[in-house]
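Supplementary Text 2. Reproducibility record for the structural model of the 193-residue chain.

All settings were left at their defaults, and a single model was retained for analysis rather than an ensemble. We include the record here because the model underlies the residue-level annotations in Supplementary Table 4.
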Amino acid sequence: MSVVSLLGVKLLNNPARFNDKYEFEITFECLEQLQKDLEWKLVYVGSATSSDHDQELDSLLVGPIPIGVNKFIFEADPPNLTKIPASEIIGVTVILLSCSYDGREFVRVGYYVNNEYDSEELNAEPPAKPVIERVRRNILAEKPRVTRFAIKCQGTPRTPPPPSSRPSSPRPTFRKMTQTSTGRRKSSWSRRL
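Retained model, structure tokens:
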């Protein structure tokens, strides 16, 4: 069993306009104190034919993490349109939400995203140059592709305690985001529910 388990990801603004922020409510459980922060990333796949157009929309350091069930809101800016081929703005693409510990990815959640115009007329006869103000994105949240990777979090592998001896945390903890001196966002616990 993993030291950190992803319990759920809820999309808070879906569907939305193409240029709206991405907002996720992420819930995870931590079974033991971690020595380092977790790093969450959101990547937008800009082209099906080349990874040169992939964009890291945001990354967030989360820590220190208390034992128990934790919850936070992850917001990310929309992709930079100048890095996406115009022919691939409309249609289906992918976003990847991942979490790493000590530089090693241990979970990735992939979602299909359908970008289309908000009117039947524009969808039937799309303009040569995309009209971004009229493009809506719909993340297919019901069918995520979750991939887990086995990593060693710290020390030696251990067997988790039986459920009766685990610290109880009936309510998740929410996090508040701050900026670090390196420019990366970092969260800190703001309140316990």
